[in-house]
Amino acid sequence: MIDRAFYERPVLEVAPDLIGCVVRHGETAGVIVETEAYHHSEPACHAYVGLTARTATLFGPPGRAYVYLSYGIHSLLNAVAEPDGAAAAVLIRALEPTVGVEAMRQRRGRHRDQELCSGPGKLTEALGVGLSDNGASLSAPPFTVLPPEGAWRATGVTVGSRIGISKATERPWRFCATDNRFVSRPWPVEQAA
User: Fold this and answer.
1) 36 domain residue, yes or no
2) Average pLDDT over the chain, rounded to whole?
3) 150 burial class (0-12, 13-18, 19+ CB within 10 angstroms)?
4) What is the pLDDT of residues 6-46, one digit of tens each?
5) CA-closest candidate to residue 36, choices 115, 119, 99
6) What's the CA dihedral at 80, 55, 182, 114 to 10 degrees?
7) Owning domain of residue 91
8) How many Å from the N-terminal Cα to the C-terminal Cα in the chain?
């Protein structure tokens, strides 16, 4: 299992290192194939405005789930990173489903595996993650995050611009398992980090 020390590092190290890890929520799980980094110093991060009731989870401790509602519709799952007070997180953008796939299909109303978790709102619906999970430890039920196994230990990571945001879009802070078709679209174009 991944412990707090893994997350207590710079968010730009944690985000690519989560590629290939397995995230489990209850009876469903998948391999993380896409992430994005967010840091309080840039305007796309919720913590850019400072400490508020909404952003409190982002300010620590590391290794917690920051779950928020996007556009009043989708709960999005983030892993809080960096030391207490730093206000940074990794958005889990896409998974390759591995466990509880039938439950994911029922929750999502989809049957193609590539459509189940290919976006941050899709994966939380598939896993059953909701706002009640905000602040939960990522190393205690209902969550578990495990390190990469087998071929996932050597998977390549493609770096590109973050998507789905309107501020600080030029930053190459999107990380995807290279050539993996479970990532969200548009598929990434490699950029220099």
Assistant:
1) yes
2) 93
3) exposed
4) 999 999 999 999 999 999 999 999 999 999 999 999 988 88
5) 119
6) 130
7) 4-177
8) 28
Band the pLDDT of 192: cuts 50, 70, 90. Answer: very low
In a domain, 183, yes or no: no
Q: Give the tokens for residue 179.
A: 């050539």
Of the candidates 41, 44, 87, the one whose C-alpha atom is nearest the C-alpha of residue 64 is 87
Report whether 65 contacts 142 (CB < 8 A). Answer: no
Q: How far apart are CA 137 and CA 155, in angstroms?
A: 26
Residue 192: inside a domain, yes or no?
Answer: no
What does the alpha-carbon distance between residue 163 and residue 181 come to, in Å, rounded to a whole number?
16
Amino acid identity for residue 139 in this structure = S
**What CATH number should be reported for the domain holding residue 156?**
3.10.300.10
The tally of domains found in the chain comes to: 1
